Amino acid sequence: MLMRTDPFRELDRVAQQMLGATTAGTWSKPAAMPMDAYRDGDEFVVCFDLPGVTPEAIELDIERNVLTVKAERRPLPGGDVQMQVSERPLGVFSRQLFLGDTLDTDHIAAGYEAGVLTLRIPIAEKAKPRRIDIAGTTGDRKEIRA
Question: Where does the sequence pass through the membrane (predicted)?
Answer without folding.
Answer: none
